[in-house]
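Q: Here's a chain of 222 amino acids. Please give me its 3D structure as C-alpha cells.
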Amino acid sequence: PQRKLKIAVSISSFKPNTGGLQTHAEQLCQNLLGRGHDVTVVTRAASREPQGRDYLFFNEPNPNLIINDIPVTALTFSRFWLPVLWFLGKCVVRPRFEGLAVNLYESVSEKSARRAYAGMDIIHHVGEAPPLSGFAAAAAAKHWRIPFIVQPTCHPHIVGDSPLDLRLFAQADRLLTHTKYEANYLRQKSFRCPIDVVGNGIQRRTDGNPERFRAKFDVAGP
C-alpha cells in the first residue's frame, strides 16, 4: 500500500526558471506533494544561480525558504572551511585528485548535510556531479541508512559522463534516466544498481501564444 514518504530532492541550485534541471525538480516536487508526500528541496543556492567556482563558496542567506509552495533547505558551510574549499576547488578540476576533492567536500558538508536530510525516507538527487552536492547527499543517505536515488543529466560523450559523474552514479541505489540510450550507456559501465527509464517529466508549455509567453516571462517583443 502507498504510504506517505518524507522525500528530499537534492539539487545543486534551485532557482526556478533558470534551467531544465530546476524546472524538472520543481515539477517533480509539485507532483510528489500532490500525491500527499512530504517533500523538501535541499540545495546550495536558491536566491540566485552561482557561476563558476562560486558554487563552492556561496552560502544562501536564508537557510529555510518556501519557493512556489515547496519547502527549501540550504546547505550552508562555515567560513572556517573557506581555505579547504579553495584547495578542493583546485583538486576537482584535476582528474587524479578528484577522489581527494570528494573526500574533502564530504567532510566540509557532513554536519550540514546530516542535519538537512535527518528524518527523510529517501534522497532523490537531480543533476551532474561537478557541483559536488550530490556527494554530500550520498554520504548523508549512507549515514541515515536510507535509499539514494540519482536522476543524472547524462548525455553520453557530451556531458554528464565524466569519471567524476560515474563516481557519483556508482553510489546510487537506483538510477533514473531520461532515455533508453542513456540507460544502455550506463548499463555498459557495469553499475550494480537497477537503472530505469522515466523520461524527463517536464510539461509541454509551448501553446503557440507568444503574447502569453512574453507576459509570463517578461520577454520584450520584436
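Q: Can you summarize the key feature?
A: The radius of gyration is 18 Å.
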